[in-house]
Design a protein that fits this description.
By secondary structure, the protein is an alpha+beta fold. 29% of the residues lie in helices and 20% in strands. It has a five-stranded mixed sheet. It is globular and about 45 Å long. The structure holds tetrahydrodeoxyuridine. Tetrahydrodeoxyuridine binds at residues 26, 29, 31, 33, 49, 51, 58, 60-62, 90, 92-93, 96.
Length: 138
């Protein structure tokens, strides 16, 4: 069982997710998203949504953050924080849930927004009975 994520680390993650949304490249949807990921190393990685004139190529904030973490050699994710400057929190999309599962099947998921409303859950609850690396083991 991993040690609980302290309040000060959670605050750092939330601050990082809010800051990450500022770099959002979302000229088509105008929907800014920031994400911060806590890796098992203790390091925090951030990402934002990056859209494309070929709309289907948009990359979500969560995946941007996770791919950055994985590119730095991280292989285990403990927590993902998603921030949107909206009245209600935004939950990770289905594709992002699957990508989180690859590195953080037990990860905590925190969604925050402009208001005090928030969602705190786990990836397991958002993607029950997930297909993942364990299914490909001989
Ligand atoms: N988006 C994210 O970055 N994360 C989510 O969890 C939901 C959607 C982005 C993708 C696109 O750039 C914009 O929000 C509108 O769908």
């Amino acid at each position: 069982m991993p040690s609980p994520i302290t309040l000060s680390v959670r605050r750092r993650l939330e601050k990082a997710a809010r800051a990450a949304a500022k770099a959002s490249y979302s000229p088509y949807s105008k929907f800014r998203v920031g994400a911060a990921v806590l890796a098992s190393s203790g390091k925090i990685y951030t990402g934002t949504n990056i859209e494309n004139a070929s709309y289907g190529l948009a990359n979500c904030a969560e995946r941007s953050a996770i791919f950055t973490a994985a590119s730095q050699g991280e292989r285990a994710i403990r927590c993902v924080v998603v921030f949107t400057p909206t009245p209600a929190p935004t939950m990770p999309c289905g594709a992002c849930r699957q990508v989180i599962n690859e590195f953080g099947p037990d990860a905590s998921i925190i969604s925050i927004c402009h208001s005090a409303e928030r969602v705190e859950t786990t990836l397991d609850r958002l993607l029950p009975a997930a297909f993942g690396p364990k299914n490909l083991k001989p």
